[in-house]
Amino acid sequence: MIALPRIFSGKEIEELKTATSQQPRPVQGDARVYLLGGGLLTSLCGSHYIGHHCRPTEIVYKCKQNQESYPGAGDQCSCPRLEATALERQVWGDVVKVLTDADRMKAMAQDWLDATASERVDRTKQIAELDQQIAELEDLIEVTSAAAAKRALRRGLSREEAEAAAERAAKPHEEDLEGLEKLRLEAEAWQREAAEASRRLNGLERLAKVARDNLRAIDDHEKAEMMDLMGLQAEVVKAAPRRPGVACGIREWFVRAGRDVPVLTDEGWERIKPLMGGSRSTHDRRAVTEAMLEKAVTGARLDEVALKYGVVKKALQTQSHRWLSNGTWAKAMELLAGSETRPVWQPDPVEIKVTVRPLAIESRLGDGEQDPSTPGRPRRTRCARRNPGARCRAGGSGRVRCSP
């Protein structure tokens, strides 16, 4: 084994770890912004969810432990994938409800002040005193080492033996120095926590002033920055297994567009008929369209709606993909705007607990495609708060429950 010199000292390694742990959550560039990515959403297995773009029609969150650490490891979890659009819309809606409540925001700021009083102590004087002690101890180490080496050389010992004697003499002081440096790192960490507490408090006060008018109109990049500022954390409490197969692209379209499903009448069909083509097709394009709308409303399986409307399952798959990819479906739905509508099918609810320092929001929302015959049961969970540098509970926590 070849002994190589260390690139970083122990102190530098600790400083690097501390600095990287304090980095704010990165915000993506032009790619799709996953508001609950970056470790914000904890999964049932204790890991966290990451954004995953499966197909153009399927954007989900998947648990990081869904994949084996190496082939054959067998350590993947069974956490279900979560539909990204509905999840983010629900969480952000709950956050907006909290932020637009002036009384709650005032209480939140006061709770934050009370809960972080110990963290906001100015450590500047303590750090300066530690710096002075460290400098004095370093001088003492140099003097002690030099004196020990001189004594060893006067006794006729070799240079190597003199260096070893110097190291032995300085060792107790080196241990003391290591302890002081550790205390200084801790003091610096507390100082950063104090600055972070002040930053977040100032941010809450600013949010309270602009929330009513601006929060619903900001883009996803700004939402991600807002969630980071608020120290938002989410935890999946309950999630039913997803139904096997590819998610319905038509239903996904309605979810992303935030629209209900129109009822296709004779008049409505005449409006969209020129768009849907089919003059040389062996399939009834109206039946194909009605089957797609039915699936988006009921969550039925593809073979079930194909049998009901007398069309081929493969034709439904092919045609839905074609209409979605070339924009035909969006144009047809615009022409049907104003028609009678039915709500989009929602699967078994996913229960999540969202903590916005120091308030907690509990939500139940839909996820992916699942069997609609097994409704989920709501579950109450304990309100908690997340505090940097300490694990403690804050009094007067708020709670919001909402359903899709």
Describe the structure.
- With 404 residues, this protein is α+β, with helices and mostly antiparallel strands.
- 50% of the residues lie in helices and 11% in strands.
- The chain has 12 helices and 10 strands.
- The strands form 3 sheets. It has a 5-stranded mixed sheet, covered by helices on one side. A 3-stranded antiparallel sheet has the order 2-3-4. Strands 6-7 form a two-stranded antiparallel sheet.
- β8 and β9 form a beta hairpin.
Order of H and E elements: HEEEEHHHHHEHEHHHHHEEEE
Radius of gyration: 30 Å
Calculate the mean pLDDT score and round it: 75
Main sheet specs: 5 strands, mixed
Shape: elongated
Query: Cα distance, first to last residue?
Result: 62 Å
Measured as a percent range, the helix fraction is 40-55%
The largest sheet has its strands arranged as 1-5-8-9-10
- Helix-strand category: alpha+beta
The total of helices stands at 12
Please summarize what this structure is.
Helix content is 50%, strand content 11%. With 404 residues, it is α+β, with helices and mostly antiparallel strands.
